[in-house]
Amino acid sequence: MENEESMEMEVYPIEHKGRVFNIITAYDMTFREVRGMLDWLSERGAFRFTPEDEFLGPGKIFTCEVEGVRLEVDVQGYEVIVYRRSPA
After folding, report:
1. Helix H or strand E encompassing 27
2. How many degrees, rounded to 5, is the angle at CA 83 between CA 81 and CA 17?
3. What is the pLDDT averaged over residues 57-69?
4. The pLDDT value given to residue 16
5. Would residue 67 be called left, alpha or beta, if left means φ above 0 and alpha means ψ between -120 and 50 degrees?
6. d(CA 14, CA 10)
7. 3-class DSSP state for residue 42?
8. Three-state SS for 59?
9. Is the pLDDT reported for residue 37 higher than 60?
């Protein structure tokens, strides 16, 4: 098993509900996991630009559980960086 720090990230563009997202991850994720994660994040306003973003930067950290996995992600605009994937 590869060490998480040594895993190489790849960019996967995906269209979901009329928007194009870049999923950046080193993990193998199913389409159901990706779409569930995007829905979960969207329901929580993760893709909305706020006045705080101008001062703090666009990154927002979330932990979501979808399709039996827990994902730790950083949302920067329409880019979602998946840092950790583990069983829920």
Report:
1. none
2. 35
3. 87
4. 96
5. left
6. 13
7. helix
8. coil
9. yes
Tokens at 31, concatenated: 């389409």
The letter for the amino acid at 58 is P
Token pair belonging to 58: 């666009």
Token pair for 36? 């569930």
Counting Cβ atoms within 10 Å, is residue 23 exposed (0-12), middle (13-18) or buried (19+)?
buried
Percent of the chain with pLDDT over 90: 73
In the structure encoding, which two tokens stand for residue 21, read together?
């997202």
DSSP H or E run through 11: strand 10-16
Sheet with 60-66: list strands edge to edge.
Answer: 10-16, 19-25, 79-87, 69-76, 60-66
